[in-house]
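Subject line: Sequence and fold of a protein, written as C-alpha coordinates
Enclosed: The protein record, placed directly beneath this head.
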Amino acid sequence: MKKRRSKRSHRNSRPWVIPPGLLMMDEPFEGFLVLDEVHSELGVLLWQCLRDVDLWAGTPAEVRRDLFNPNAIEQRLERIAEETDPESSVRTMLDLMARVLDWPGAPRPAELSEACESLSRWASDQGWPRTALAFAQRSALAAPELAGPAYLVGMVARRGADYRRAETWFRRALALARRNRDWKYYGLAHLGLANLHMQRGDAPSARARLLRALRAARRYGVWSVRPFALHDLFCIAANGGDRDQAELYARAAFRSYGRRHPRLPALAHDVAWFWMLQRHYGRALEMFRAVLRHVPRPPERMVVLANIARSAAGLGDAEGYEAAWKEVWRIVENRADTERVAEAMISLAHGAYSLREGTRMEMSASLALRVATRRHEAQERLAAEDLLNRARNLKARRRRGAALPPIPPPVEPEPGAEPSSADQLHDDLVEALLEVPLP
Protein backbone atom coordinates (compact mmCIF):
# COMPACT_ATOMS: atom_id res chain seq x y z
CA MET A 1 0.00 0.00 0.00
CA LYS A 2 2.80 2.42 0.84
CA LYS A 3 4.48 1.76 -2.47
CA ARG A 4 1.24 2.34 -4.38
CA ARG A 5 0.62 5.68 -2.63
CA SER A 6 4.17 6.69 -3.33
CA LYS A 7 3.66 6.08 -7.05
CA ARG A 8 0.43 8.06 -7.08
CA SER A 9 2.09 10.92 -5.22
CA HIS A 10 4.94 10.93 -7.70
CA ARG A 11 2.52 10.92 -10.60
CA ASN A 12 0.57 13.87 -9.21
CA SER A 13 3.74 15.85 -8.55
CA ARG A 14 4.81 15.86 -12.20
CA PRO A 15 5.06 19.39 -13.62
CA TRP A 16 2.15 20.49 -15.79
CA VAL A 17 2.94 20.64 -19.49
CA ILE A 18 1.08 23.59 -21.01
CA PRO A 19 1.01 23.37 -24.81
CA PRO A 20 1.70 26.63 -26.65
CA GLY A 21 -0.89 28.39 -28.76
CA LEU A 22 -0.10 29.25 -32.37
CA LEU A 23 0.96 32.92 -32.47
CA MET A 24 2.55 33.51 -35.86
CA MET A 25 0.34 35.05 -38.54
CA ASP A 26 0.91 35.34 -42.26
CA GLU A 27 2.03 38.98 -42.33
CA PRO A 28 5.27 40.76 -43.27
CA PHE A 29 5.58 42.37 -39.82
CA GLU A 30 3.70 42.23 -36.50
CA GLY A 31 0.38 44.04 -36.70
CA PHE A 32 0.38 44.46 -40.49
CA LEU A 33 -3.04 42.80 -40.79
CA VAL A 34 -4.55 45.43 -38.48
CA LEU A 35 -3.19 48.27 -40.63
CA ASP A 36 -4.40 46.44 -43.74
CA GLU A 37 -7.89 45.99 -42.27
CA VAL A 38 -8.45 49.39 -40.60
CA HIS A 39 -7.54 52.03 -43.18
CA SER A 40 -7.48 55.12 -40.96
CA GLU A 41 -5.58 56.85 -38.17
CA LEU A 42 -7.53 54.61 -35.80
CA GLY A 43 -5.78 51.66 -37.42
CA VAL A 44 -2.41 53.22 -36.59
CA LEU A 45 -3.47 53.73 -32.97
CA LEU A 46 -4.60 50.10 -32.74
CA TRP A 47 -1.31 48.95 -34.27
CA GLN A 48 0.67 51.00 -31.73
CA CYS A 49 -1.32 49.42 -28.90
CA LEU A 50 -0.49 45.97 -30.21
CA ARG A 51 3.20 46.73 -30.36
CA ASP A 52 3.14 48.22 -26.84
CA VAL A 53 1.55 45.06 -25.45
CA ASP A 54 4.07 42.90 -27.32
CA LEU A 55 6.95 44.83 -25.76
CA TRP A 56 5.35 44.88 -22.29
CA ALA A 57 4.51 41.16 -22.31
CA GLY A 58 7.96 40.17 -23.55
CA THR A 59 9.83 42.14 -20.90
CA PRO A 60 10.47 40.93 -17.31
CA ALA A 61 8.35 42.84 -14.78
CA GLU A 62 11.37 44.18 -12.88
CA VAL A 63 12.68 46.14 -15.91
CA ARG A 64 9.42 47.36 -17.43
CA ARG A 65 9.78 50.82 -15.88
CA ASP A 66 12.47 51.68 -18.49
CA LEU A 67 10.51 50.55 -21.54
CA PHE A 68 8.91 53.86 -22.58
CA ASN A 69 9.77 57.56 -22.56
CA PRO A 70 8.47 59.52 -19.54
CA ASN A 71 6.09 61.63 -21.67
CA ALA A 72 4.93 58.79 -23.92
CA ILE A 73 1.53 58.41 -22.27
CA GLU A 74 0.68 62.13 -22.61
CA GLN A 75 1.48 62.04 -26.32
CA ARG A 76 -0.58 58.90 -26.85
CA LEU A 77 -3.59 60.27 -24.94
CA GLU A 78 -3.48 63.43 -27.07
CA ARG A 79 -3.57 61.36 -30.26
CA ILE A 80 -6.43 59.24 -28.96
CA ALA A 81 -8.40 62.40 -28.13
CA GLU A 82 -7.77 63.77 -31.64
CA GLU A 83 -8.74 60.61 -33.53
CA THR A 84 -11.74 59.27 -31.57
CA ASP A 85 -15.16 60.55 -30.57
CA PRO A 86 -15.41 61.55 -26.88
CA GLU A 87 -18.52 59.38 -26.47
CA SER A 88 -17.18 56.31 -28.29
CA SER A 89 -16.53 53.12 -26.38
CA VAL A 90 -13.24 52.58 -28.20
CA ARG A 91 -11.77 55.76 -26.65
CA THR A 92 -12.16 54.31 -23.15
CA MET A 93 -10.51 51.07 -24.27
CA LEU A 94 -7.60 52.88 -25.93
CA ASP A 95 -7.11 55.12 -22.89
CA LEU A 96 -6.77 52.03 -20.71
CA MET A 97 -4.33 50.47 -23.19
CA ALA A 98 -2.26 53.65 -23.11
CA ARG A 99 -1.65 53.13 -19.39
CA VAL A 100 0.89 50.47 -20.38
CA LEU A 101 3.18 53.41 -21.24
CA ASP A 102 2.90 54.83 -17.73
CA TRP A 103 5.00 52.84 -15.27
CA PRO A 104 3.50 54.16 -11.98
CA GLY A 105 -0.08 53.71 -13.22
CA ALA A 106 0.46 50.69 -15.46
CA PRO A 107 -2.36 48.12 -15.32
CA ARG A 108 -1.87 44.69 -13.82
CA PRO A 109 -1.67 41.73 -16.24
CA ALA A 110 -5.33 40.77 -15.70
CA GLU A 111 -6.49 44.36 -16.33
CA LEU A 112 -4.43 44.67 -19.50
CA SER A 113 -5.74 41.30 -20.66
CA GLU A 114 -9.33 42.46 -20.10
CA ALA A 115 -8.66 45.67 -22.06
CA CYS A 116 -7.31 43.63 -24.99
CA GLU A 117 -10.32 41.33 -24.77
CA SER A 118 -12.70 44.32 -24.91
CA LEU A 119 -10.93 45.65 -28.02
CA SER A 120 -11.10 42.18 -29.59
CA ARG A 121 -14.86 41.97 -29.07
CA TRP A 122 -15.31 45.53 -30.31
CA ALA A 123 -13.31 44.80 -33.48
CA SER A 124 -15.37 41.67 -34.10
CA ASP A 125 -18.56 43.75 -33.91
CA GLN A 126 -17.03 46.20 -36.39
CA GLY A 127 -16.47 43.39 -38.90
CA TRP A 128 -12.65 43.33 -38.49
CA PRO A 129 -11.88 39.66 -37.78
CA ARG A 130 -8.09 39.91 -38.12
CA THR A 131 -7.96 42.85 -35.72
CA ALA A 132 -10.16 40.90 -33.33
CA LEU A 133 -7.77 37.95 -33.49
CA ALA A 134 -4.70 40.16 -32.97
CA PHE A 135 -6.11 41.66 -29.78
CA ALA A 136 -7.38 38.29 -28.55
CA GLN A 137 -3.83 36.95 -28.82
CA ARG A 138 -2.48 39.99 -26.95
CA SER A 139 -5.05 39.33 -24.24
CA ALA A 140 -3.54 35.86 -23.84
CA LEU A 141 0.02 37.20 -23.93
CA ALA A 142 -0.74 39.75 -21.22
CA ALA A 143 -2.06 37.05 -18.86
CA PRO A 144 -0.35 33.82 -20.00
CA GLU A 145 -1.30 31.88 -16.87
CA LEU A 146 -5.07 32.35 -17.28
CA ALA A 147 -7.31 29.97 -19.21
CA GLY A 148 -9.98 32.54 -20.13
CA PRO A 149 -7.86 34.61 -22.57
CA ALA A 150 -6.56 31.43 -24.23
CA TYR A 151 -10.14 30.26 -24.71
CA LEU A 152 -11.01 33.64 -26.24
CA VAL A 153 -8.28 33.23 -28.87
CA GLY A 154 -9.68 29.82 -29.76
CA MET A 155 -13.17 31.23 -30.18
CA VAL A 156 -12.07 34.18 -32.34
CA ALA A 157 -9.83 31.96 -34.48
CA ARG A 158 -12.65 29.45 -35.00
CA ARG A 159 -15.03 32.20 -36.13
CA GLY A 160 -12.38 33.30 -38.61
CA ALA A 161 -12.04 29.71 -39.96
CA ASP A 162 -8.45 29.47 -38.64
CA TYR A 163 -9.13 26.00 -37.24
CA ARG A 164 -5.52 24.94 -36.70
CA ARG A 165 -4.86 28.01 -34.55
CA ALA A 166 -8.17 27.54 -32.72
CA GLU A 167 -7.31 23.96 -31.77
CA THR A 168 -3.92 24.92 -30.32
CA TRP A 169 -5.50 27.60 -28.13
CA PHE A 170 -8.40 25.44 -26.97
CA ARG A 171 -5.88 22.78 -25.93
CA ARG A 172 -3.80 25.39 -24.12
CA ALA A 173 -6.93 26.69 -22.35
CA LEU A 174 -7.80 23.12 -21.35
CA ALA A 175 -4.36 22.52 -19.83
CA LEU A 176 -4.29 25.89 -18.02
CA ALA A 177 -7.80 25.35 -16.65
CA ARG A 178 -6.88 21.88 -15.37
CA ARG A 179 -3.74 23.18 -13.69
CA ASN A 180 -5.55 26.17 -12.15
CA ARG A 181 -8.63 24.10 -11.26
CA ASP A 182 -10.67 26.59 -13.26
CA TRP A 183 -13.51 24.19 -14.02
CA LYS A 184 -15.60 26.69 -15.95
CA TYR A 185 -12.96 27.10 -18.65
CA TYR A 186 -12.09 23.42 -18.41
CA GLY A 187 -15.64 22.65 -19.57
CA LEU A 188 -15.70 25.47 -22.13
CA ALA A 189 -12.42 24.32 -23.68
CA HIS A 190 -13.91 20.85 -24.16
CA LEU A 191 -16.89 22.54 -25.84
CA GLY A 192 -14.58 24.48 -28.14
CA LEU A 193 -12.77 21.32 -29.21
CA ALA A 194 -16.12 19.54 -29.65
CA ASN A 195 -17.27 22.24 -32.05
CA LEU A 196 -14.10 21.81 -34.10
CA HIS A 197 -14.83 18.07 -34.31
CA MET A 198 -18.39 18.84 -35.43
CA GLN A 199 -17.13 21.16 -38.17
CA ARG A 200 -14.91 18.32 -39.42
CA GLY A 201 -17.87 15.92 -39.42
CA ASP A 202 -16.46 13.82 -36.56
CA ALA A 203 -19.62 13.45 -34.44
CA PRO A 204 -18.32 10.64 -32.15
CA SER A 205 -15.29 12.68 -31.03
CA ALA A 206 -17.47 15.76 -30.58
CA ARG A 207 -19.97 13.83 -28.47
CA ALA A 208 -17.18 12.41 -26.28
CA ARG A 209 -15.86 15.94 -25.60
CA LEU A 210 -19.35 17.22 -24.79
CA LEU A 211 -20.01 14.40 -22.35
CA ARG A 212 -16.71 15.17 -20.59
CA ALA A 213 -17.77 18.82 -20.30
CA LEU A 214 -21.16 17.75 -18.95
CA ARG A 215 -19.57 15.46 -16.36
CA ALA A 216 -17.21 18.24 -15.25
CA ALA A 217 -20.15 20.63 -14.89
CA ARG A 218 -21.97 18.14 -12.67
CA ARG A 219 -18.94 17.11 -10.66
CA TYR A 220 -17.69 20.61 -9.90
CA GLY A 221 -21.03 22.43 -9.85
CA VAL A 222 -20.21 24.64 -12.86
CA TRP A 223 -23.80 25.14 -13.92
CA SER A 224 -22.92 27.80 -16.49
CA VAL A 225 -21.30 25.13 -18.67
CA ARG A 226 -24.13 22.58 -18.44
CA PRO A 227 -26.63 24.30 -20.82
CA PHE A 228 -23.95 24.80 -23.48
CA ALA A 229 -23.07 21.10 -23.41
CA LEU A 230 -26.73 20.05 -23.61
CA HIS A 231 -27.29 22.52 -26.44
CA ASP A 232 -24.43 21.07 -28.49
CA LEU A 233 -25.56 17.51 -27.75
CA PHE A 234 -28.94 18.51 -29.17
CA CYS A 235 -27.21 19.74 -32.34
CA ILE A 236 -25.37 16.42 -32.75
CA ALA A 237 -28.58 14.42 -32.26
CA ALA A 238 -30.42 16.71 -34.69
CA ASN A 239 -27.71 16.37 -37.34
CA GLY A 240 -27.84 12.61 -36.87
CA GLY A 241 -31.60 12.54 -37.42
CA ASP A 242 -32.41 11.20 -33.93
CA ARG A 243 -35.60 13.18 -33.42
CA ASP A 244 -36.58 11.83 -30.00
CA GLN A 245 -33.09 12.22 -28.51
CA ALA A 246 -32.78 15.70 -30.02
CA GLU A 247 -36.01 16.86 -28.41
CA LEU A 248 -34.94 15.46 -25.04
CA TYR A 249 -31.66 17.38 -25.20
CA ALA A 250 -33.48 20.53 -26.38
CA ARG A 251 -35.85 20.41 -23.41
CA ALA A 252 -32.98 19.78 -20.99
CA ALA A 253 -31.01 22.70 -22.46
CA PHE A 254 -34.08 24.98 -22.19
CA ARG A 255 -34.55 24.10 -18.54
CA SER A 256 -30.84 24.57 -17.85
CA TYR A 257 -30.60 27.93 -19.62
CA GLY A 258 -33.72 29.38 -18.03
CA ARG A 259 -36.07 31.87 -19.64
CA ARG A 260 -33.76 34.91 -19.49
CA HIS A 261 -30.41 33.45 -20.54
CA PRO A 262 -28.67 35.42 -23.35
CA ARG A 263 -28.02 32.17 -25.24
CA LEU A 264 -31.69 31.15 -25.30
CA PRO A 265 -32.26 32.74 -28.75
CA ALA A 266 -29.43 30.58 -30.12
CA LEU A 267 -31.08 27.43 -28.77
CA ALA A 268 -34.47 28.50 -30.15
CA HIS A 269 -32.88 29.13 -33.55
CA ASP A 270 -31.28 25.70 -33.64
CA VAL A 271 -34.54 24.01 -32.59
CA ALA A 272 -36.39 25.93 -35.33
CA TRP A 273 -33.74 24.85 -37.83
CA PHE A 274 -34.29 21.22 -36.78
CA TRP A 275 -38.02 21.58 -37.40
CA MET A 276 -37.39 23.32 -40.72
CA LEU A 277 -35.42 20.30 -41.94
CA GLN A 278 -38.44 18.14 -41.10
CA ARG A 279 -40.63 20.50 -43.24
CA HIS A 280 -42.51 21.91 -40.22
CA TYR A 281 -42.13 25.29 -41.89
CA GLY A 282 -44.96 27.09 -40.08
CA ARG A 283 -43.68 26.15 -36.65
CA ALA A 284 -40.09 27.01 -37.63
CA LEU A 285 -41.01 30.36 -39.23
CA GLU A 286 -42.76 31.65 -36.12
CA MET A 287 -39.75 30.68 -34.02
CA PHE A 288 -37.22 32.30 -36.37
CA ARG A 289 -39.19 35.57 -36.32
CA ALA A 290 -39.27 35.53 -32.50
CA VAL A 291 -35.49 34.93 -32.47
CA LEU A 292 -34.68 37.74 -34.93
CA ARG A 293 -35.52 40.53 -32.50
CA HIS A 294 -32.77 39.26 -30.15
CA VAL A 295 -29.98 38.98 -32.75
CA PRO A 296 -28.22 42.29 -33.50
CA ARG A 297 -24.81 40.89 -34.55
CA PRO A 298 -24.70 40.82 -38.38
CA PRO A 299 -23.36 37.27 -38.99
CA GLU A 300 -25.99 35.65 -36.77
CA ARG A 301 -28.75 37.99 -37.99
CA MET A 302 -27.91 37.07 -41.59
CA VAL A 303 -28.34 33.35 -40.83
CA VAL A 304 -31.67 33.89 -39.05
CA LEU A 305 -32.96 35.95 -41.99
CA ALA A 306 -31.82 33.28 -44.45
CA ASN A 307 -33.72 30.63 -42.50
CA ILE A 308 -36.79 32.88 -42.43
CA ALA A 309 -36.49 33.04 -46.22
CA ARG A 310 -36.19 29.26 -46.51
CA SER A 311 -39.16 28.61 -44.20
CA ALA A 312 -41.32 31.18 -46.01
CA ALA A 313 -40.42 29.58 -49.35
CA GLY A 314 -41.35 26.16 -47.97
CA LEU A 315 -44.82 27.55 -47.25
CA GLY A 316 -45.01 29.04 -50.75
CA ASP A 317 -44.71 32.63 -49.46
CA ALA A 318 -42.76 34.28 -52.29
CA GLU A 319 -43.09 37.79 -50.82
CA GLY A 320 -41.73 36.69 -47.45
CA TYR A 321 -38.81 35.00 -49.20
CA GLU A 322 -38.11 38.12 -51.28
CA ALA A 323 -38.04 40.44 -48.25
CA ALA A 324 -35.64 38.22 -46.31
CA TRP A 325 -33.49 37.62 -49.42
CA LYS A 326 -32.89 41.37 -49.79
CA GLU A 327 -31.94 41.78 -46.13
CA VAL A 328 -29.44 38.91 -46.27
CA TRP A 329 -27.69 40.28 -49.35
CA ARG A 330 -27.58 43.78 -47.84
CA ILE A 331 -25.67 42.39 -44.83
CA VAL A 332 -23.32 40.34 -47.05
CA GLU A 333 -22.48 43.34 -49.24
CA ASN A 334 -21.83 45.65 -46.26
CA ARG A 335 -19.34 43.40 -44.47
CA ALA A 336 -15.75 42.57 -45.33
CA ASP A 337 -15.60 39.29 -43.40
CA THR A 338 -17.31 36.06 -44.52
CA GLU A 339 -18.28 34.57 -41.15
CA ARG A 340 -21.36 32.32 -41.65
CA VAL A 341 -21.93 33.58 -45.21
CA ALA A 342 -21.83 30.07 -46.70
CA GLU A 343 -24.39 28.86 -44.16
CA ALA A 344 -26.76 31.72 -45.01
CA MET A 345 -26.36 31.27 -48.75
CA ILE A 346 -27.18 27.56 -48.49
CA SER A 347 -30.49 28.37 -46.79
CA LEU A 348 -31.28 30.95 -49.48
CA ALA A 349 -30.53 28.37 -52.17
CA HIS A 350 -32.84 25.82 -50.53
CA GLY A 351 -35.59 28.43 -50.42
CA ALA A 352 -35.06 29.32 -54.07
CA TYR A 353 -35.37 25.63 -54.95
CA SER A 354 -38.73 25.43 -53.16
CA LEU A 355 -39.93 28.38 -55.27
CA ARG A 356 -38.30 26.95 -58.43
CA GLU A 357 -36.12 30.06 -58.90
CA GLY A 358 -33.11 28.52 -60.59
CA THR A 359 -31.18 31.76 -61.11
CA ARG A 360 -31.33 32.80 -57.45
CA MET A 361 -30.54 29.26 -56.42
CA GLU A 362 -27.42 29.20 -58.61
CA MET A 363 -26.35 32.67 -57.43
CA SER A 364 -26.59 31.72 -53.74
CA ALA A 365 -25.02 28.28 -54.13
CA SER A 366 -22.11 29.68 -56.14
CA LEU A 367 -21.22 32.20 -53.44
CA ALA A 368 -21.63 29.53 -50.75
CA LEU A 369 -19.20 27.27 -52.62
CA ARG A 370 -16.57 29.99 -53.02
CA VAL A 371 -16.74 31.05 -49.37
CA ALA A 372 -16.85 27.50 -47.98
CA THR A 373 -13.85 26.49 -50.09
CA ARG A 374 -11.86 29.52 -48.93
CA ARG A 375 -12.76 28.94 -45.26
CA HIS A 376 -12.25 25.13 -45.41
CA GLU A 377 -15.86 24.49 -44.31
CA ALA A 378 -16.25 20.94 -45.54
CA GLN A 379 -19.94 20.38 -44.79
CA GLU A 380 -21.00 23.69 -46.32
CA ARG A 381 -18.86 23.03 -49.40
CA LEU A 382 -20.50 19.65 -50.03
CA ALA A 383 -23.98 21.14 -49.54
CA ALA A 384 -23.17 24.02 -51.90
CA GLU A 385 -21.89 21.66 -54.61
CA ASP A 386 -25.07 19.59 -54.38
CA LEU A 387 -27.29 22.69 -54.56
CA LEU A 388 -25.34 24.10 -57.49
CA ASN A 389 -25.81 20.86 -59.44
CA ARG A 390 -29.52 20.87 -58.64
CA ALA A 391 -29.83 24.49 -59.76
CA ARG A 392 -28.19 23.74 -63.10
CA ASN A 393 -30.35 20.67 -63.54
CA LEU A 394 -33.45 22.76 -62.77
CA LYS A 395 -32.52 25.36 -65.38
CA ALA A 396 -31.69 22.66 -67.94
CA ARG A 397 -35.12 21.00 -67.42
CA ARG A 398 -36.80 24.36 -67.93
CA ARG A 399 -34.96 24.93 -71.21
CA ARG A 400 -35.98 21.49 -72.45
CA GLY A 401 -39.56 21.91 -71.28
CA ALA A 402 -39.23 18.78 -69.13
CA ALA A 403 -41.28 18.21 -65.98
CA LEU A 404 -39.72 19.52 -62.79
CA PRO A 405 -39.16 17.16 -59.82
CA PRO A 406 -41.96 17.37 -57.23
CA ILE A 407 -41.41 19.22 -53.97
CA PRO A 408 -42.52 17.51 -50.74
CA PRO A 409 -45.32 19.57 -49.15
CA PRO A 410 -44.91 21.23 -45.75
CA VAL A 411 -45.89 19.16 -42.74
CA GLU A 412 -48.95 20.69 -41.10
CA PRO A 413 -50.68 19.61 -37.87
CA GLU A 414 -53.84 17.59 -38.41
CA PRO A 415 -57.07 19.50 -37.60
CA GLY A 416 -58.28 18.72 -34.09
CA ALA A 417 -55.11 16.83 -33.13
CA GLU A 418 -53.78 17.12 -29.59
CA PRO A 419 -50.69 19.34 -29.25
CA SER A 420 -47.52 17.27 -29.45
CA SER A 421 -44.46 17.57 -27.21
CA ALA A 422 -42.77 19.53 -30.03
CA ASP A 423 -45.73 21.94 -30.14
CA GLN A 424 -45.40 22.50 -26.39
CA LEU A 425 -41.65 23.12 -26.70
CA HIS A 426 -42.36 25.58 -29.52
CA ASP A 427 -44.93 27.48 -27.45
CA ASP A 428 -42.66 27.62 -24.40
CA LEU A 429 -39.68 28.92 -26.38
CA VAL A 430 -41.67 31.53 -28.30
CA GLU A 431 -43.34 32.74 -25.11
CA ALA A 432 -39.94 33.04 -23.39
CA LEU A 433 -38.48 34.99 -26.32
CA LEU A 434 -41.40 37.39 -26.57
CA GLU A 435 -41.57 38.17 -22.85
CA VAL A 436 -37.95 39.35 -22.68
CA PRO A 437 -37.83 43.14 -23.26
CA LEU A 438 -35.52 44.41 -25.95
CA PRO A 439 -32.57 46.60 -24.87
